[in-house]
Amino acid sequence: ADSRTSSGSYVVNRASDKITSVADNIYVCRSGSAADTQVLTDYVRHYIKLHSLELGEEPEVKVAANLFRMMAYHNKNHLMAGLIVAGYDARHGPSVYNISLGGAVCEQPLAAGGSGSTYIFGFLDSNYRPDFTREECEKFVATAISLAIHRDGSSGGVCRLLTVNKDGATRTLIKGNELARW
């Protein structure tokens, strides 16, 4: 994710963190209204924690994605929330779910959201491979984010990468001046 939060042409925050932990193995990348996505994440985090305590095991990514979907769909006329829910669980392995503004959920091998995504779909489609190594995948994502930052006035700042696998989650920060220039 990039780190710019804007309101129209006004940059509200140039160093926000749009990737939020839902559980140790599940994260959400938020776009749209920061307030809407933050409160949705708080609710889902609460329900996922209760669900995990009840089952006595780590939550499934699919369950978190469906909680986000349900809340986004039932409040679709009041929220502006685009979400990408991703993570790793023992039953299904790695998974990525894209939840659109209206609350539709779709499991995909990769997802992009927010205003910058419209500028990079061609790059994603022509360069994505399902057999990426971790290093190749992180480079691919950093390149996509730098392209979005270069082309979209509402995207910018730094690039925050999060890699989730069976060993846990790893965060990487790439400063704006270290991103590729186009």
From TrEMBL:
<dbReference type="GO" id="GO:0005737">
    <property type="term" value="C:cytoplasm"/>
</dbReference>
<dbReference type="InterPro" id="IPR001353">
    <property type="entry name" value="Proteasome_sua/b"/>
</dbReference>
<keyword id="KW-0888">Threonine protease</keyword>
<keyword id="KW-0378">Hydrolase</keyword>
<dbReference type="GO" id="GO:0019774">
    <property type="term" value="C:proteasome core complex, beta-subunit complex"/>
</dbReference>
<dbReference type="Pfam" id="PF00227">
    <property type="entry name" value="Proteasome"/>
</dbReference>
<dbReference type="InterPro" id="IPR000243">
    <property type="entry name" value="Pept_T1A_subB"/>
</dbReference>
<dbReference type="InterPro" id="IPR029055">
    <property type="entry name" value="Ntn_hydrolases_N"/>
</dbReference>
<keyword id="KW-0645">Protease</keyword>
<dbReference type="GO" id="GO:0051603">
    <property type="term" value="P:proteolysis involved in protein catabolic process"/>
</dbReference>
<dbReference type="InterPro" id="IPR023333">
    <property type="entry name" value="Proteasome_suB-type"/>
</dbReference>
<dbReference type="GO" id="GO:0005634">
    <property type="term" value="C:nucleus"/>
</dbReference>
<protein>
    <recommendedName>
        <fullName>proteasome endopeptidase complex</fullName>
        <ecNumber>3.4.25.1</ecNumber>
    </recommendedName>
</protein>
<keyword id="KW-0963">Cytoplasm</keyword>
<dbReference type="GO" id="GO:0004298">
    <property type="term" value="F:threonine-type endopeptidase activity"/>
</dbReference>
<keyword id="KW-0647">Proteasome</keyword>
